[in-house]
Amino acid sequence: MIRCVSCGEEYEDEEVIYNCKKCGSVLEVEVEVDVPKTTFDGRRDNLWKYKECLPVDASKRVSLDEGGTPFCKCDKLAKELGIDLYVKVEGSNPTGSFKDRGMTIGMTKAMMLGVDTVGCASTGNTSASLAAYAARAGLRCAVFLPAGKVALGKLAQAMFHGAEVFSINGNFDEALEAMTQLAREKHLYLLNSINPFRLEGQKTIGYEIVHDLGWEAPDRIILPVGNAGNISAIWKGVSEFHRAGFIDDLPMMTGIQAEGACPIANAFRDKTMDMAPVENPETIATAIRIGAPVSYIKALRAIYDSNGLAETVSDEEILDAQKLLARTEGIGVEPASAASIAGLKKLVEQGDIDKGERVVCVVTGHLLKDPNTAIDACVDPVQVDADIDKIKEILLNK
Ligand SMILES: N[C@@H](CCOP(=O)(O)O)C(=O)O
């Protein structure tokens, strides 16, 4: 059953629908977990190990073995910050971002519905993932990207997997509006996170975090917020396992946005559910360069209901955090992902995070998604002849 999160109107799972027909709000798929947690024992470590909790037919899955991503204890950073820190590395998914979790469920649903074309608007990662899963499923795929604002690695992926790529003269929000119109007219099946089945895949990040912690919730989960589907999805996942009795507590959901694209942090600051879109979003973290997140209602609810927080970080703080994580803990992430680390640092410094808290930062995409930003942040390699004396002279005299 699909349910409107605002008015509660219900729809059949088979209905292709993106917004409530009664009130226009966003939708979610109703799932009650009714298996014991031992059901998941001994299974292959991908997200399909939770297949009883996923609202699609697992025997028809379109999968690239997504999920089961690294959960790294980060003691050096933790010591510096005076907390207990884990990083959930979503860049280790097949196309290098958490979107693959959503796409395996979304694409499986597309096959169950018998559609022939799928589409999305994207700041990059969604399109890379959709293109790969569409190729695997053998479906036609169209993607709309904001012209000149997509990191090189992501653009290469979308094109190389054979998507029909449109460079839209406009920002992501405008591209999504156009793509959604096509989907409403039934020209294609929309696989952005407004599709509630996409988020059913992403909720497994929440499942894995509490499972990895030995069926305990962390005090806090911190993640970047762009179109706002992921924070809602992770909250849905941990809430489902809480209702099932697998965990006793719930984490405080904490969303981080870039200063130039922060409609949710603004709404949180004003303690309101009424989000005012940001007209011209801008940030180096292109993955979260979004002014009108479609899942803002779900995201703000997750934050308020969990007693969580929303905060902003500057581009400079993002780039510093990206380097810090790479050089202190060896974890390479794209700029948007580093927003969670930058936000953690800022919240600790402000005293909003208590000493000793157990925090999980979700880092959403791999470093190589945005190679240009990574290279620009480094000094040029040392140019030298293949002459051992010359090499020694430089290397040993430092
Ligand atoms: N950062 C996203 C923006 C679209 O988000 P979605 O979760 O609604 O698909 C991207 O990678 O395109």
TrEMBL record:
CDD domains: Thr-synth_1 (cd01563)
Signal peptide extent: none
A GO molecular function held by the record: threonine synthase activity
Pathway the protein contributes to: Amino-acid biosynthesis; L-threonine biosynthesis; L-threonine from L-aspartate: step 5/5
EC number: 4.2.3.1
A single GO BP: isoleucine biosynthetic process
Similarity-based family: Belongs to the threonine synthase family.
Biological role stated in the UniProt entry: Catalyzes the gamma-elimination of phosphate from L-phosphohomoserine and the beta-addition of water to produce L-threonine.
Protein name: Threonine synthase
Origin species: Methanobrevibacter olleyae
